[in-house]
């Protein structure tokens, strides 16, 4: 399995864990609480539901 990691995106996202963010992906955007950041994905909590978003799919992130 090959997984690409963008260390700059990973390190930047770590600074906003626990804050509300808007994550734009190739499929649309998701707004919620950034619960966790891993090198290959992030976890965003939206009204009690967890969304696991691959870092490779993220276009931009806007902290609120």
What does this structure look like?
The protein has 64 residues and is mainly beta. Helices cover 12% and strands 53% of the residues. Strands 4-3-2-1-5 form a five-stranded antiparallel β-sheet. It is globular, with a radius of gyration of 11 Å. The N and C termini lie far apart (34 Å).
CATH architecture: Roll
Any idea what the radius of gyration is? 11 Å
CATH topology: SH3 type barrels
What count of structural domains? 1
Number of helices: 1
Low-confidence stretches: none
Estimate the global geometry from the Cα principal axes. globular
On the 0-100 scale, what is the average pLDDT?
A: 94
Number of strands: 5
CATH class call: Mainly Beta
Q: In percent terms, what proportion of residues is strand?
A: over 45%
Q: Main sheet, how many strands, which sense, barrel?
A: 5 strands, antiparallel
Largest sheet, spatial ordering of strands: 4-3-2-1-5
Distance between the termini: 34 Å
Structural class: mainly beta
Reading the helices and strands in chain order gives HEEEEE
Compose a concise summary of this entry.
The chain is 12% helix and 53% strand. The chain contains one helix and five strands. It has one helix spanning 7-14, and strands spanning 20-25, 28-37, 41-46, 49-54, 58-63.
Write the SSE topology:
Elements: H1 7-14, E1 20-25, E2 28-37, E3 41-46, E4 49-54, E5 58-63
Question: What are the defining features of this structure?
Answer:
single chain, 64 residues, mainly beta, SH3 type barrels, 1 helix
